[in-house]
Amino acid sequence: MIIRPVAMSDLAELKTIAAESGPGFTSLVNDHDFLVQKIERSIASFADANGQQAAGSYLFVLVEPNTGSIMGTTGIEASVGTRRPLYHYRVGHATRQSPTLGLSRHQQTLTLCNHYKGGSEICTLYLRPQYRRAWAGKLLSRVRFLFMAQHPERFANTVIAEMRGVSDPSGESPFWRWLQTHFVDLDFATVSQMVGTGDNGFIADLMPEHPLYTSLMDEPARAVIGKVHPDTRPALHMLESEGFRFNGFIDPFDGGPTIEAPVQTLRSVRQSSHCRARIGPDRTPSKAPWTNGGQGKTLMVANTSLADFRATITTAARYLPAHQLLEIPESLANSLGLDIDSMGGADVWFADLEAAGQNQNRAMATSRQSDPIKEAFRAH
């Protein structure tokens, strides 16, 4: 599996992915002109040596090397909420009381806002069902952090992730269904298409400016506030293990949570390393413990190129910390397109996926005992 920047030759497969991902996946909508523009903008961002943060849009594809098929997508928007508003509902509470009567009522509220202005966003993560295999999803998710570690000047200090909210088998959102009934007479698929292509002016025009009392919503809508789509739960747990947290903002269309973190505190950013690689012959990885200098650890490895960025996962590598040197086989060096110098070496970035995976397992175990999003709702 190889991660690389999207190319215009990927348009047909990207349209297929946009169609099969369904309503709610607003960062990759099934619209020909939109997809062409998205690819063009990504190509320009990867080609921009100066790295203008406000203009950066980076779309990666995961490629099956034997067939060349696109297995999935993942992306980063360098700056959101500035060129056009990024709307959310802020989850809050209001208390009304009468001292005279000794009565009070505590209510949960949703207030429309444009809180995130200028932060970076990870987005467009989709792994096609037929390619859901070991490490594929982790590579799609974590490669973004390795890229951000390489190019911190291109991104904001804070990164957010809008998690896909709950929808029924027909693709309809219970949260939006209530809003549609009372405020905006557009179905969820139409709204998703409009928002995904940048047409979100109707939000300010039609959606209520005053706080919504969730007690007035029907039970299906109220039940999905801050919840994620079942297919999104693994991604949520993975991001929580990286250090993302919910701070009280939800999507105004499906009610899914938006989570955030300082970039430099992300686990995969902190644990990534920039070092020299020594290229050697291909061989079967040994099973010796990593601490004894053996091979077999699952590493995410990337070259240091921008326009020709490549990343993959491998167990056929060995890190020598005393020498700050990563030994990799020739076939891996070729697949990453490493720029090998006259000394037979090259610069690489890498991160240990297994260490992150262990932390993710702990995060998942903790979340079964105490849901961090539920805890955040109590705090708000």
From TrEMBL:
UniProt keyword annotations, A-Z: Acyltransferase, Arginine metabolism, Transferase
Ranges of Basic and acidic residues composition bias in the record: 371-380
Biased composition (Polar residues): 361-370
Name of one Pfam family that matches: AstA
Region (Disordered): 361-380
Alphabetized GO MF terms: arginine N-succinyltransferase activity
Transmembrane stretches, start-end: none
GO biological process, one term: L-arginine catabolic process
SUPFAM superfamilies: Acyl-CoA N-acyltransferases (Nat)
NCBIfam families, sorted: arg_catab_AOST
Name listed for the protein in its UniProt record: Arginine N-succinyltransferase
Organism listed in the record: Marinobacter confluentis
Upper taxonomic lineage: Bacteria, Pseudomonadati, Pseudomonadota, Gammaproteobacteria, Pseudomonadales
